Fold each of these.
Amino acid sequence: MESDYGVPRDLSHLQKMRSIYQPELPPCLQGTPVGVEFGDATTVADSISQSFPHTSGQRLAHFLAKVPGAQIISHLPEMRVGLVFCGRQSPGGHNVVWGLHEALKFHNPKSTLLGFLGGSEGLFAQKTLEITDNILSTYKNQGGYDLLGRTKDQIRTKEQVNAAMTACNALKLDGLVIIGGVTSNTDAAQLAEAFAEAKCSTKVVGVPVTLNGDLKNQFVEANVGFDTICKVNSQLISNVCTDALSAEKYYYFIRLMGRKASHVALECALQSHPNMVIIAEEVAASKLTIFDLTKQICDAVQARAEADKYHGVILLPEGLIVSIPEVYALLQEIHSLLQHGVSVDKISTQLSPWASALFEFLPTFITKQLLLNPESDYSAQLSQIETEKLLAQLVEVEMNKRQKEGSYKGKKFNAICHFSGYQARGSLPSKFDCDYAYVLGHVCYHILSAGLNGYMATVTNLKNPCNQWHCGAAPITAMLSIKQEGRALTVGVHPAIVDLRGKVYESVRKNSQKMLLDDIYRNPGPLQFDGPGADSRAVSLCVEDLDYMGRIKELNEYLEKVRSIVKPGCHQDVVKAALSAMSSVTNILSVMASNGSA
Amino acid sequence: MESDYGVPRDLSHLQKMRSIYQPELPPCLQGTPVGVEFGDATTVADSISQSFPHTSGQRLAHFLAKVPGAQIISHLPEMRVGLVFCGRQSPGGHNVVWGLHEALKFHNPKSTLLGFLGGSEGLFAQKTLEITDNILSTYKNQGGYDLLGRTKDQIRTKEQVNAAMTACNALKLDGLVIIGGVTSNTDAAQLAEAFAEAKCSTKVVGVPVTLNGDLKNQFVEANVGFDTICKVNSQLISNVCTDALSAEKYYYFIRLMGRKASHVALECALQSHPNMVIIAEEVAASKLTIFDLTKQICDAVQARAEADKYHGVILLPEGLIVSIPEVYALLQEIHSLLQHGVSVDKISTQLSPWASALFEFLPTFITKQLLLNPESDYSAQLSQIETEKLLAQLVEVEMNKRQKEGSYKGKKFNAICHFSGYQARGSLPSKFDCDYAYVLGHVCYHILSAGLNGYMATVTNLKNPCNQWHCGAAPITAMLSIKQEGRALTVGVHPAIVDLRGKVYESVRKNSQKMLLDDIYRNPGPLQFDGPGADSRAVSLCVEDLDYMGRIKELNEYLEKVRSIVKPGCHQDVVKAALSAMSSVTNILSVMASNGSA
């Protein structure tokens, strides 16, 4: 089976041209040696630090090109590193491999990079492929994970952790790089702790690669793959908008991949201006039922019909279905029954009366999909549940009803449904994702070279050109949180949800009325690699004020300035003013911190 | 309703850059005046010439830049021209409007171009928008038909023809340009004849614009929109191939828009190398039943499983469903019953026993779709029939059966289905389609300027760069043929089907075994407007040896050469050799012509 991995491939003309594209390194990673500067220690909740005694509370790391005062890494020993793809393939993943391989070989040509074949299963089974320049040549800047493949995505149970440790020991790995999203990086944190506990010398590094764009926090601005996915999807959505406007007879319901959070849907709405975008987080926050949602859409259809418009484009995230409170409750019951071994055809008879009523109401195609076994992270198989069809059908029924009753006098409502996921996921990665992933690959090397364990590679200031990017590493433990899921408390890197008070959401909301009625469709066009548009960034990346680490640095500069002004010998009034101002600031911050905002 | 047409739009950065892109004119259309040279008279079947006494047998026209001997158009009178979009929107359509408008204004600034709003309905109702530079500015090189819109696509009944004539007379039009595919150009031919018969002074011109790519014949090499559609679809198919290879657990069944003929599916297969492509023409020629097809796919799945491969990508044209003999027969019965006013819920009871058996066998979702009313050209609503789901379902059932019987020992078969049409149809047009459509727009002007009626604008030698393109016009009557459809004989521009003896089909066939088993996927990448790939042509355009008119010209050069060699005074042996050779050639050609090859 593994014989097919890493084989050279016939590339199209454009693929060939892409394969010779060389991303830049930001100045901080140029030359050798690269310095590492340690920042503040990170804080975590007590219960987390108890579970992660070896890897929590570690300091942030920044990589800098030979800065005076920084600890210079002058020894460049030979290294053996393993790498594994986990979870949904995300465009750009191959470039992490390339960047890491290049950095390893650059700092010591004898170093080795082993790719595990077929994801975590390959890790457990110690199936490896030694990465070479030759093997990489037809995979540089290319999409998919087919260089190494992936299967199951879990490294969680005691058995799995032990199998991973055995593999790392047997292969004498100095480092294990895990490429994936929230689930895989949670696994990486646990693996790092287990390795440290067992005094295994392999250091574990995580890399934020997920098309969902939901691995976001103070340290991580963006995920590899999100930019490409949003650009490809936005192109398709815009094409459909143009189509809608030309034919003027259909409503298109487009469901977007992206798991529970609605980042992909939100970004695509910013790029393409559809008539409506349903944000799962908003539905959950407003506790909208499926009937509320149907009514909202019907009212929109009716408002447009009054302006003689019988077409439209409505985006919805695949996570919508589990954000509708009553459907979520139904799914929880189903999954719990499945876990208790109840067979699929018996489940409907064992639901609570309330869940049963909903189950009976829903069309058969949806109930079949709701009955599917949950994913490895215990969540529903979102890609398989056709929420777009459910909504389109409910809207059609309601519009027909309104027409019969005479409250709607327009033309018949016609819907066409799409699920946009697989068509985008295997795309050639955008320039941004190529560059970002390549740099992250280099950062992985420097993390391992500094001997750090349980860190995630980070690159910040991403909205600016690559020569202004900052490279660093943050302990994954600092990204862990505790969350109630169903009845269990889980510790993990939890998906960031769309911030309903944030700038990104706001910029869609404030245009929503115009988008709904005025057809202000916008087509970002197909992904470009040259010329106009090639260097564009995701809108949400540019809208949000992301540079958390930069702001901490700026704050430190202010504190230093105060210190340098208020020195013995300065005027009495200056000291007084400083005292009063600083006392007020610390009071405010103490209150905020104890309220949980900090 | 029309107030929304032609409004300026907010364009994305890439759209703006595209809107200022200026296509080239081939040398033959540069400068003024452009000359027109008339070639041979065209031949048509007797029955056609009887129905088209005024417009059949007209001569071919070629446009040339001031060539000595050509008839020079020196008077450049003011002109009033109307233009209407008919049929499915096709990327590039807007550029025909632009090219025509530019040529009109260039030759006489007082000339007027009126766009009919909302397709043929707008033509009948005389709803127009006067095209201006200002209006065009945000529609140049952009996709869709939203500048003018389109509704119903028919100009066929006596009433419709009369309404069109009334409109042309009332608006004092010198020309009416009809933009569309086979059906619309058939209508154009009939309109031209009716106008000539009624001594209406408006000349009718057709333009080959259809994403289906099925308006092909000796005079027409390619259709506007086909290039874009195939490139966008191939990108998506390739992305799915990469996805399949990365996840290794799904078979993707992708149905492609393109009406009855399989040109789009074939071209996409050439660009992306999926595991399998089903060509409707092949199914029809081999009289494959739906069970044969299912078995073929199952055998392929089984062969791949033996190589431990559980993923794959299978393309099928939307026209496949009507190419399966027994389904076609069933559809004919259904449509005939519908025409006789039988209500949908009664139809299943009135089918012949044989059709009824098939109807009962098929899954409900498909029978519902088969019961839809036919399109305006009496064909089935292909975009609404989910053949991909039908096949996936039948294959799944058969694979499960084989597994139970023990003849298949591999993993469970999993399918994911896609219909790729609407996502591609509204795309920004490729450079090729922008250029081609723009030049066709200019050609329309020259056809009208030469006073020709019932002609289609043609551009040939398209596989070469624009500066080698030849521009001309061919009487649409020369493209008409008679065909049996069901029980009726229809005269029309019939869709060209895939030539099973042609080079394009052959180049897919000879690779089919490698494609099936070796995963030689290829990703042409997203549509590029700059840099590598931007100037690429459809593979089928380059493979086929298309230059019919060029070859007739070359032949005439040979004949001229023979005449110039064999003149009184030349040697006796030369005359003898010439006589013997020419007698043999004419004998062969006479036999071929009487056999119907000519």
Amino acid sequence: MHEPLPPGSVIGILGGGQLGRMLSVAAARLGYKTAIFEPGGDCPASHVANFHLQAGYEDEAALRRFAQGVDVITYEFENVPTSALDILETLRPIRPGREALRISQDRIVEKDFLSGLGLAVAPYRAVASEDDLRAALDGIGAPAILKTCRFGYDGKGQARITSPDDIPAAWAAMNGAASVLEGFVAFSHEVSVIAARGLDRSVAVFDPGENVHEGGILRSTTVPARLTAAQRGDAVLLAANILNALDYVGVLGVELFVTSRGLIVNEIAPRVHNSGHWTQQGCAVDQFEQHVRAIAGWVLGDGRRHADVVMENLIGDDMARLPDLARERDVAIHLYGKADVKPGRKMGHVNRITG
Amino acid sequence: MHEPLPPGSVIGILGGGQLGRMLSVAAARLGYKTAIFEPGGDCPASHVANFHLQAGYEDEAALRRFAQGVDVITYEFENVPTSALDILETLRPIRPGREALRISQDRIVEKDFLSGLGLAVAPYRAVASEDDLRAALDGIGAPAILKTCRFGYDGKGQARITSPDDIPAAWAAMNGAASVLEGFVAFSHEVSVIAARGLDRSVAVFDPGENVHEGGILRSTTVPARLTAAQRGDAVLLAANILNALDYVGVLGVELFVTSRGLIVNEIAPRVHNSGHWTQQGCAVDQFEQHVRAIAGWVLGDGRRHADVVMENLIGDDMARLPDLARERDVAIHLYGKADVKPGRKMGHVNRITG
């Protein structure tokens, strides 16, 4: 049995971007306060949080002060430096736990973990040099994609390889970082599953969403996704499998390729996920509240979808479409409060209720 | 034509309770920052706002500092002292405007205003003494209800009169304050309309909700309300009538009695209203965002209801029901972050999606 964190407890969030912002609002809805640890000033999460500790992840004193002011620590991004976690974990519980971070911080470790669970992943090979890359491409075959093992997001740290001629440029693009070559998967479409596991070990899974990417950045998520009943069942089971294997507490995002031979896991993210934003308009308990419920020891929400939704990201100049979007029916607008519009920058999203 | 306030502008909110809290979250969702003016520390709105200026309404320097730090001023309660408004209005626009406050701050002025628009209200008489009360009761007849003209809320400042014997006690309960005697209305049920008017003078009205009160405090609001199509039309038209007469900008709540002879206006509130909380789960644009849209010069949201909802307040010890509520399907929980549970205190609400 777990008593939930009492009302007024403080949830510490590492990272002050839009995910931290929406987590803060959800925490407030459940009666909690929030403290944000974020090096940047005027960050999106700070606008809706009780406290913002502006300091770098190498600032040990700040990390200690932060931990001492909160009751539980969570994060909005998986690349939290290990040295910071080493300090924080001695002071307060970190949820989801470090094993999830260790695995998701490195693409090869992650793929080994997923394969070890018996889940299908794209063919992959570790690459530490141009020679490695050549050998890996021989084994996997073109086309393939080279990715840095760590710190990649929104298509960054990636290079496509369509023939051996691309090898030198692709390897150069990695800047010498440990990388992984992944074979292309012939998939019809991509879906993701947003799943949660509570302190009581119960699991709740949101309806899978169908994702469209453009330039490596998520463009839209549509629920319901095009999936057979069997595929839907597989998606739920594999997500639960991952959560249990990690003894996970919180929300996890799992990206899946849909192929004629079944679902293939693309990657996992140990946090709330852009492809789960539709839950804000589609469910009584959205992914942000579900995460807060999990890490605060509440019972999980059931996650049932009561509406069809299309989530669309507002990226860079999409902000110019706001006046039109504001006029549309059944469109919920969510802006992130970022000061500057930049190309490729996620400025907000809209959830369109379609049924 | 009105250009909306640019992203990153600061919305100043007078009052730091739960309405200010939910307005802050809505403002953030539209890319704005918020500043709260509230004498109390650790107030619900401050948990999700950028700034909290903790000062009293008699602190002129604080009021000036507040106004200079914001782009537009709104409020979450109608009893903002006139002296404070006199200072603030010289510095920044106050929306809704002062006329709405002047009228809603005094029950007699409000009833005169509504009657002047040709709207039906309960019979009423001004009462300034026990003799006045006796004469008023003679004219209106028992049962009736005596209310202070100003500063009443949640059933406070009210006394029921069922016979002339009740007169001394009822008058004593007013503590000498200017009061109004209202005749009882034989109504079948009570509904309220949450309506909005934009800077462009457009009007949008949410579907009326049906209210149940207990001990003078709102217990629940159900949408759709039991209303004929004609009553529904009347409700929308009279709300628009009030908004236009006040040249209003923002969200207004109108409480109505449903009777066999038509709708009778109980009272109006120049702000977001407890009976509009259902819109958080029932509409793509809820009453809080609608208010922010209006005062920030956005186009209004259409307010269409996409779900049936029952809103139930969590009052005092209702908080003990949280573990059960958290387990229910299709129930969205909204807590206000108040430190202490007190009898009669609104601690939160739940929105139950019923269809």
